[in-house]
Amino acid sequence: MGSFLKNFGNNSTIFAFSSGSVPSGVGIIRISGPLSLKCAKIITGDEPKKPRIVELKNFVNPNTNDYIDRGLMIWFNKPNSFTGEDIIEFHTHGSMAVVDLLYEILLSIDNVRIAEPGEFTRRSFENNKLNLEQVEGLVDVINAETKIQLDHANKLLLGNLGELTENLRVKLLALLSEIEAAIEFEDDGIVLDTFKNLNLKIDSISEIINDILVNYQNSQIIRDGLIISIIGPPNVGKSSIINRLTNSDVSIITNIPGTTRDIVEVKLKLFGYPVLLRDTAGLRHAQDVVEKIGVEKSIESIKQSDLIISVTDNELDLPIDLNTYNITDNTSIIEVQNKSDLIRDFNKNDIIYISAKTNFGFEKLLSHIKIILESKFNQTKNKMYLISRKRHHEIFQEISNSLISFKKQTELELKAEDLRFGIQSLGKITGRVDVEDMLDKLFNEFCIGK
Ligand SMILES: Nc1nc2c(ncn2[C@@H]2O[C@H](COP(=O)(O)OP(=O)(O)OP(=O)(O)O)[C@@H](O)[C@H]2O)c(=O)[nH]1
Ligand SMILES: [Mg+2]
C-alpha cells in the first residue's frame, strides 16, 4: 500500500463544491478533515451544536464582516461520516459569487485546500468505510445514465461482489485446511481418496467462476453501452442514417464518396438501453492517407461491435462481406439497403429496405434493433453476480487459472500452493492486497467533490 499512503497519509482538510455546476437552486460545499469544525466557526461564527442536525446559518466573511448568504449547515461527526472524518456541509444558494467567496475564505485557512478528484472517496477507502469494489460501484452509480446501468452499479455498491468473493474465499480456505490436514497425515490410501474429493469440490467452485467469466462481455455492455456500428461502402448513406437515428446532424453528409474520415460516436439511450452508435468511414481501398486511417478505424470498429448495421444502396448489389473481418459469434448483423426511394423492386429477402431521405423503413429497422438489444441485455437479467470491469475479469481469470492448475497437480503441497494463489487473487477484488497501481486510476474516474 506504499504509494497510496504516501499520497493520502497527509492530514489536510479538503473541500469541494459537491453538487455539480453553478448556477443552481442549491449548492453544497463539503469540507472533510480535522479542521472542518474550525472552518464552520470561521464562516458562521459558531461550531455546530450537534452532529446530524440541520442548522440555519448566515455565512459571513470573517475579514470584512460582509454577509454572503444564508443557508444550511450540517455536521457529520467522525467516524460516522462518508469519509470517516469530521465533515461539514454548507447548503448555500448555487450562485457563482457565493461559491467563489466561500472558496476564498476556506483557502485562506492554513492546511485547508481544494480536494483532488475522488479524494473524499479515497479517504473513505483509506478509513475502511468502503472497500474497493464498493468504490468502483460508486463510480458507476455516479456515471450511470440508464436504469439498467444504475441497477448494475448498485449491486456492486451494495457489496454483492464482496459477498461472492467472501463466499469463495471461505470455500477455498476450507479446502486449503483440508489439504493441510491431509499433508500432515499423508498415507497412500487417504491421499487417493482426498484427491478425488478435492477435485470434485474444486469443480463446483470453478463452475461459479466460469459463469462469471462467460458473462463478462454481456455485463460490459451494461456498463459501457452496446456498440452499434453503421458500416458499408462509401456514399451509401451511412452518415444520413446515423443522423436519422439520432435525430440530429452529428455527421457530415455530402455526395462526395469518402466524406466521413473518422469514427463519429454518439452515446444514446435506445429503448432505455445504453448504446454507443458509430458512423464509420466508407470501406474501400483508399489512396488518401487520412481516409486510409479512417478505413482502418472502421475495420477496428467492426471487430468491437455488438451489432453491425451493414448498409448498401440502390446501386450496389451486395453488402460488404463481413466474413473477412473476423467478427465474433456474439456480434449481430442487420443488413439494410438505403436510398429505397430510388427503386421500385423490393425483392431481396433478409434485407431491410430503408430511405434516410424519406424515413421509409426506419420503423422496421428500429424494431429489429430493439429485438437484438433486448436479447443481449436480457442475458444478464437474472444473474446475481456480474463483473463488468477489466480489473475484475483479470482477477477471476487468475483464480480460474489457479484452479485449473490445482486439478493438474499430483502432489498435495503443489495443490495447496495453487489454492493460496487463488485466495490471494480474490483479496484483490476488495482491494486490501496488492493494488497500489490501480488506485490512482480508479479515483481519477471521480469528479471533484466526490
Ligand atoms: N435519394 C437518396 N439519397 C440519399 C439517401 N441517403 C443518403 N443520400 C445521399 O447520398 C449521399 C451520401 O450520403 P452520406 O450519408 O454522406 O453517405 P456515407 O455513406 O456516409 O458516405 P461516406 O461518408 O463518404 O462513406 C448524399 O448526397 C446523401 O444526400 C436516401 O435515402 N435517398
Ligand atoms: Mg459518411
Summary of the model, kept short:
The protein is an alpha/beta fold and 450 residues long. 46% of the residues lie in helices and 17% in strands.
Structure explained in plain terms:
By secondary structure, the chain is an alpha/beta fold. The protein has three domains: 2-131, Gyrase A, domain 2 (2-Layer Sandwich), CATH 3.30.1360; 141-215 and 386-431, Four Helix Bundle (Hemerythrin (Met), subunit A) (Up-down Bundle); 222-378, P-loop containing nucleotide triphosphate hydrolases (Rossmann fold, 3-Layer(aba) Sandwich). It is built from 15 helices and twelve strands. The protein has helices at residues 2-8, 36-44, 96-107, 119-126, 132-143, 147-157, 160-184, 188-214, 216-224, 238-246, 289-304, 362-378, 390-408, 412-430, 436-443; strands spanning 13-17, 24-32, 55-60, 67-76, 87-94, 112-114, 226-231, 264-270, 273-279, 307-312, 332-337, 352-353. The strands form two sheets. It has a six-stranded mixed β-sheet with strand order 3-4-5-2-1-6, with helices on one face. α5 packs antiparallel against α6, α8 runs antiparallel to α13 (390-408) and α13 packs antiparallel against α14. The chain is flat and about 80 Å long. Magnesium ion (MG) binds next to α10.
